[in-house]
Amino acid sequence: MKTDRDLERQLASIDRRGYPAYKGLRGTYDFGDFELDIAHVQGDPFAAPSQLAVYVSGDVSGLPACCRDAAHRRTATEDLLVRRFSKEAAQASFKVGGSGKSGFIGTSNPGPEILARSACEIAPDGAVMLRFEAGLPAHGRTIDARAAARMLLDLIPVCVERALMLDDAGRRAAQKAAELADDQRAVRSAIRERGLVAFVADGSVLPRSSGVSAKPLAGARPFTSPESMRVTLELPHRGRVRGMGIRRGITLIVGGGYHGKSTLLKALQEGVYDHIAGDGRELVATDETAIKLRAEDGRVVHAVDISPFINNLPDGRDTRSFSTEDASGSTSQAASTVEALEAGARTLLIDEDTSATNFMVRDALMEAVVAAEHEPITPFVERVRALWERHGVSCVLVMGSSGAFFPVADSVIQMDAYEANDITERVRAVLADARLAGTYPEAPGLGVSASEAGEASEAGEAGEASEAGETSASSSSDQDAPASRPLELGGRLERRSTGRPGRRGRARGGDDAGTARHEHLKVRGRGRDGFSVGSYDADLRLVEQLVDAEQSAALAQMVRVVLEHGLLDGMRALRDVVDEAFRVLDEQGWEALSPYGDAACGLARPRPCELFAALNRLR
């Protein structure tokens, strides 16, 4: 293996030569405490930066065993190391000048979510590999070897030493990150065992500093659980933690404008991810399959059975396999709902503000004016109860203007100046008076029968038992939840891939669906908003639970692999396509998503449901 001195000599030999001479630097160099790998060199100083990586052995990194002996701890520690290196790189970046991207040093710059990223991987023995980008210096398109030597031989080694070679303070930080990961894992386990949709710890800070910032709002009111919904969890490191447990079923979040309804739902939809300490939401956790639904005017829909919600169209189109290039708000939300169920969602999250009104509700006056036989839309309020009782799919809805969902709800949370109050019994009483007055007929949900009221009481007693400190999973398990059954949606939940992208992708090379292609489709990213692969485009702007542009970048590469291997051939169920893509990622690692075999920084792991969303939105 070559050494740092060899690198120094090579740099001196190419000084003032044309920029392509930098390509001769590719290879691995031994710096003593670490190895530097120059994997890909940019074509000119104005192109995308060069791809580099450093390797630090376990003996040198100093990572405690407790930070790397389980997958969830490794992910948390990798996240910490990426943040440390990103901070050091930002200080070293552009300290040498030049044209284009000369002097740039950078890696992933995570938000508050903890995601598995291609930027860093930790081996079981504590060895660290960190991938980053660097703009090799030039004046015009002429190599500046002196500046390159300072960057590669001085600045980058300092970043490596400060970020990846841990002193006592660094080891303590890594241990705290691993311990938080243990606690977060315990919360998620408790959610499954106790029949909850989500848990929000007392003391959590839910509001963000602004609509475009993920930082917690300074001076915000800490969250406090309603007494009737409070549960107590025993966590391995923090010990006893109390907070609000939202039970499975149908939950409404109501209240006046600006009182925190959407803020709570936003915390729940992002609670599918773990968060770093100090974010305020590090102990807010939601069912990992939860999917946020909304209207998406103009989205593409491919062969989706929307007949449970839309049927008997005036033009006679079959809604059991519905396709359109320009869906309306109601049609898009109907399609997204069915797609979410197909993706395996056990929890749906919906905000009235971002929903199509005619998809959600239809009031009595409108029904009197427009007869049911002239209305093709069956509103969600008439389907949500069956989703729970027959299929075990829970729903959390924010409602601010319509009371139509009260009769079908199991519990109601009112947000009042960011304070959560359980008003379920109050709503039950109001509904009882309304039924006596003939306003509302009998409906499933709140207080429709003595037996159901008894079940609600038992659920409350289970919560009280938890408050008393009972930590046995069986004391508040999911025993009373409806059994999951095959969804009766026209059999389309095993929907076959449309074959449209697959046919066009197959034309680019290869004969069989499983044969690797020799020609790679070109991928273009648009940050978190979406991407294009070959001639196909995916608009992900309204897929709200994508929280990082690197997730979108990973989705783009996964879609590329799917298309190049002809998996969208119309023969496979979409579930099988998604499962295969994640199997390849799990078995082959980040290299599986690189067209050239060498992984680079800039990718973060999405959830399977986001790959479903991307494939469903290809046009």
What is the compact description of this entry?
With 619 residues, the protein is of the alpha+beta class. The chain is 33% helix and 19% strand. Strands 1, 2, 3, 4, 5, 7 and 8 form a seven-stranded mixed β-sheet that branches.
Account of the 3D structure:
It is a single chain. By secondary structure, this protein is of the alpha+beta class. It contains 16 helices and 28 strands. The strands form eight sheets. Strands 1, 2, 3, 4, 5, 7 and 8 form a seven-stranded mixed beta sheet that branches. A six-stranded mixed beta sheet has the order 19-22-23-16-24-25, sandwiched between helices. It has a four-stranded antiparallel beta sheet with strand order 14-15-11-18, sandwiched between helices. Helix 3 (71-92) crosses helix 5 and helix 14 crosses helix 16. The longest helix is centred in the first third of the chain and has 26 residues, at 168-193. The radius of gyration is 27 Å and the shape is globular. The model is unreliable at 447-479 and 501-518 (pLDDT under 50).
Features:
28 strands, seven-stranded mixed β-sheet, six-stranded mixed β-sheet
Radius of gyration: 27 Å
Integer average pLDDT: 89
Helical segment count: 16
What is the terminal-to-terminal distance? 48 Å
Shape: globular
Helix content: 25-40%
Instruction: Classify the secondary structure makeup into a structural class.
Output: alpha+beta
What composes the largest sheet?
7 strands, mixed
Q: Please report the total strand number as a whole number.
A: 28
Uncertain segments are 447-479, 501-518
Strand content: 15-25%
